[in-house]
Amino acid sequence: CVLCGRTDDCPEKYGEKRTYEKHNLTVHYYCLLMSSGIWQRGEEDEGVDGFLIQDIKKEVNRAAKLKCNICRKKGASVGCVAPKCKRSYHFPCGIQKECIFQFMEDFRSYCWEHRPVQKFLDKESGGTSQCTICLDLVEQLPAYNVLKSPCCKNAWFHRECLQYQALSAGIFFFRCTVCSNMDKFQKEMLRMGIHIPERDASWELEENAYQDLLQCYQHCDIRRCLCKKGRDYNEPDSKWEIKRCQCCGSRGTHLACSSLKSWEQNWECVECRSIFAKSGNYSKQKKRSLATSEKTDGTCLLEEPSPKCPRQSPGSQRSFLLQSPKIMCHNSLSPCLHLELSASNRLTMSLSPLMPDRNLSLRKKHLRKQKREVSNILKDLKLQVNTKTTRLNINEKNIWDSALKGFRQRNFSPTNTIEIQFTNCKNKSKTHTSVAKLRFFKLLMLHLQNSSLFEGSSAKNLSLDFQAVKENLYFEAGKMIAVSLVHGGPAPGFFSKTLFNCLVYGPENVKPDLEDVADVDVAQTIKMIKYTNNLSSLQSTIYNCYEFLAAAGCLRPITDLSDKNMLVNDLLIHHVIKRIKSPLESFSQGLKTLGVLEKMQAHPDAFSSIFCRKLERLSAEAVCDLFIIRSSSDVNKVKGADFWIGYLKDVESGESAVTLEDILLFATGSSSIPPMGFDPEPTLKFLHMRYPIGNRLLNCLELPITKTYEEFKKKMEFTIKNTLKVERE
């Protein structure tokens, strides 16, 4: 290079190395950009990207008279722009000496003494964090090789990682890896010397990079393909047309090979059908049973509703089924036809005592709708979770410390499948099933509710714990809540409306109430000001509280009794919101894990139902709707369903030794319904057996077929009560 004198060809460090044999010229692009005595006087296609050849030669002659302050050799073309600084150096020498080169505007350069630095708060410095690009540890220090995101409080990077990311992503895709902010992030990185090329991302420039996505799958995967021209033969509008699986699109079949008609689109491959079978989704079987019943003389339960119920349109079949126990005929199709309408009536009527008011209140309906919406959102977020497993060793007696240690271990990732292993004092394994994961998250939410991170009686706000801020515990708490929701755990349920609104709408848009003040003395002082009846009493109260008001920054001239309202408002905003600004920012960053906070902000009404409300007691109706009853044509099993519904009614009314929560705990290992719901979906089976069995691995409750209801109830009471008693002991 004619400017730096080096032969290195390293585009990442020095830019593209260009040689012009006609002019006997070789130059690094970055050396040219950063040289202090040259400007682009030509068009883009003239010289070297607008730098004229004669100007480059003049700059070489100018630099030949300057000695580098680093290597002491001639040819230093780059100079520090700081006033009164006369240091000059080669571009590569400046990189070695940790100078800053700004690839924007006037392409300024700063020497090692005058370079711009990022400002850190004392509480932010020290400790280690994880570089969100390479995932290695990075020290939280104001150093040249360490950069902090301007938009995310807990995002730290290695300079080298950021530079490689910028070169790959280009100006259109380079953004914060945590919050995806682009404008603020790019502005700060350019100021700190990260070069962001003005071009498209490297993956967008690769020729035919997405060519594979444009190809449709056309191959018959049926075990015995009937087409004589081969599995890849496809002739549209004929029996040899290839149809792809409607779910995955990566398997196909000839119409003739699967006995399909040309108008049938709902073909599913073996792999997808097996997944549906495991998840309890038998929608395909339902459709086929309806189609089959049309060709028979009998009447199918799924085809014709009770005479007492209005006739259901095809689009409302689902709602009809949801109003009664979820009955699924999974043996043969024809026995289903022998279930007479009287049996259907008995099942439907047995539900009526559980729902005395068919027209539920609007509030209750709205709450159900919100919970369904949250469940669907969380299921979508769970698609980020992969099959790679991370095991957390949890000490039940020290749940917080062991959880914190697990979440901070190097190989922990929120997108990994979490496996919980409870340990006793001898560190011997107790359990590591899905039940253990539910229990872990439940204990963790309970600990957070009672921890020093929150304050208040029932509806809680964030507290100000300086030690917790220093140790970044608010971020970890937010992260744990987000992970619990996406991994099927419980919601906190103890947030105040004020805290929730601060997270969703921003603290500047929230007006707190007196009930949000947890400190009794502070609350009493605010009450004294709020309920003062005359101006002299108000001024006297303010005089007595002078130090408190001064510390809060709320001193204001009082000339009228109405001024107390603004003063009270200022005090509430200071104590409830401004005082906890740092914990709130950190907590919000933690809640952004797996995209939870973003969804909260997009669906605030739905998420408030799980963040700001305590778990309601289970109802017989809720438990009945939760379990899918799998029945066949056996009338005894329909009678068993009647016994089950009657038993739930007795338990709800207190005529039983167990509770509805006990029943759910016996079947699933959880005494409450998680916001996401259960996976797999709880099922109910009636079998010829002596006592009921709760299969928590499959969330399946197997119930005995009995002759009388009294016998059924006795067996249920005995088994559930004694099983849970042994577990508690």
TrEMBL record:
Protein name: G2/M phase-specific E3 ubiquitin-protein ligase
Organism name: Calypte anna
Database matches in SUPFAM superfamilies: FYVE/PHD zinc finger (SSF57903), Hect, E3 ligase catalytic domain (SSF56204)
GO molecular function, one term: ubiquitin-protein transferase activity
Pfam families associated with the record: HECT (PF00632), PHD_G2E3 (PF26054), zf-HC5HC2H (PF13771)
PROSITE patterns: EPHD (PS51805)
Chief subcellular location: nucleus
Residue ranges constituting the PHD-type domain according to the UniProt record: 1-115
